[in-house]
Amino acid sequence: MAEFAELKVNGKEYKLPIIEGTEQEKGFDISKLRAESGMITLDTGFKNTGSTQSSVTFLDGEKGILRYRGYPIEQLAEKSTFLEVAYLLIYGELPTGQELFDFKSDIKKHQLVHEDMKKILQGFPSTAHPMGVLSSLATSLTAFFPESLDPNRSAEKINLTILRLLAKIPTLVSWSFTNARGIKANYPDNNLDYVGNFMKMMFNLPTEEYEIDPIVADAMEKIFILHADHEQNCSTSTVRIVGSSHANLYASVAAGINALWGPLHGGANQKVIEMLKNIIDNGGDAKKFLDKAKDPNDPFRLMGFGHRVYKNFDPRAQILKKQADKILERLGVDEPEFEIAKHLEEAALKDEYFIERKLYPNVDFYSGIIMKAIGIPIEMFPVMFSIGRLPGWIAQWKEMRAHNEPIGRPRQIYVGATERPYVEVSDRS
Ligand code: CMC
Fold first, then answer.
1. Which of 219, 228, 231, 382 qualifies as a cystine partner to 57, CB 3.0-4.6 A?
2. Do 170 and 290 share a domain, yes or no?
3. Interval 278-296: pLDDT, tens
4. Beta carbons of 370 and 324 less than 8 angstroms apart
5. Are residues 171 and 150 in the same domain?
6. Which residues does 215 contact at the CB level (< 8 Å), separation at least 6?
7. What CATH number does the domain containing 30 carry?
8. Which of 307, 316, 351, 360 to mutate to test the pocket of ligand 1 (most atoms within 8 A of CB)?
9. Cα(307) to centroid of ligand 1, in Å?
10. Is 380 left (phi over 0), alpha (psi -120 to 50) or beta?
């Protein structure tokens, strides 16, 4: 029997249908509320607003559960490869052996990018942040594949765009990296797997062949898997809302990259290491920074701590913490940032302010530490997050279009000036 919630306003009752998901999550459907009552709901930052019904990723922030298409993140991180996870997210099921083989071959076919992309890249000064470069290059792909602008393309053609994105983004990331360093671009090597090929394109030098370290490749594979989707976060909601205007997939993903760039979202991994350096440069007193983070009059926040949804622990962070310990030990890296990170983590976990607000280290805290340890340049950290999140953005965009979702267009409560007559410039004080 259909369940309803009842809302009573000024004596008048409104029935709001209750929608229940497969994990028994419940929500009131308010989509007809404005038409019936003239009122909207207000929820700045969408802290308690569902924007869609999705079957891609399940997340329970209280219990620390994260599952892609039903599969626990812990099992995927342990047993799967990034491309298997990408396939799972995008097509809904883990691939059979043959499907995986075909998927990998299809991606290899598209890894090369047009040489003219280099002209675009050369236009950027060396000071350009790689996230800005990447979003520009993602948008530029529309120029090379103009048919992607047609919002009513066949599923087969959309799939081609999906394969191109997955194949070309790592190449473009590596080219933007080598370009910024003034080094000759590397080309994809179809004999290597996805992650190995990417690492080689990034770090191979004309003077020195890059050797793929399995520890490093495994760490990157896990980072990519753990970042692959996270339901309706800021960048994914951006991708869905941009795509809801029937903007093409390249443009929607480019918007996602820009949303991810912010330090409160995917830019946090870069900020974690910058914060640790800052602590060292200021005498190494982690407590001073902890106090700053607690001061309501100081905008400083402990980067890599806290999460909108996880209120007990971030399951991705738990996996990466173990991985970080393993990597620091196996690679024998010992840098002052790691020591400070340990102090900060211990101190914050014991601190009443952080306990009360349920602020724990998040995925970016440990991914930042791992990427620093394996030699990824700091400004490239959010770019690594983008490569990881790409399958999630694609899967969510595809779902939004398959459901034929209407254009995303929130309402507002206007609190500005009421109607007033125009004032001539000569009369303005
Ligand atoms: N350091 C100090 N105080 C914090 C922090 C922090 N990192 N995060 C939240 N708080 C405080 C905040 O000041 C507020 O205190 P009060 O109740 O006294 O006003 C309370 O905790 C609740 O914070 P909020 O801003 O209402 O929480 P939110 O859900 O809007 O923000 C967040 C979530 C992730 C943006 C925030 O915790 C933050 O800014 N963290 C640092 C940036 C970061 O690490 N981001 C990566 C998130 S994980 C990767 C991803 O999925 O993007």
1. 231
2. no
3. 999 999 888 899 999 999 9
4. yes
5. yes
6. 327, 330, 331, 374
7. 2.20.28
8. 307
9. 6
10. alpha
Question: Any catalytic annotation for residue 129?
Answer: no
Statement to judge: residues 253 and 299 lie in one domain: no
Domain with 52, as residue range(s), is: 4-66
What's at 228, amino acid-wise? A
Q: Residue 69 corresponds to which amino acid?
A: R
| Ramachandran class of 306: left when φ > 0, alpha when ψ lies in -120 to 50, beta otherwise | left
- Total domain count, the chain: 3
Is 135 in the same domain as 242? yes
Looking at the fold, whether 96 and 199 belong to one and the same domain comes out as yes
Ligand 1, atom 50: nearest CA belongs to which residue? 265
Separation between Cα atoms, residue 245 and residue 405, nearest integer Å = 10
pLDDT by residue (tens digit) across 132-174? 999 999 999 999 999 999 988 999 999 999 999 999 999 999 9
Q: Is 307 a catalytic residue?
A: yes
342: CB partners within 8 A, 6+ apart: none
Whether 253 and 115 map to the same domain: the answer is yes
Asked if residue 323 and residue 223 are part of one domain, the reply reads: no
Same domain, residue pair 210 and 330: no
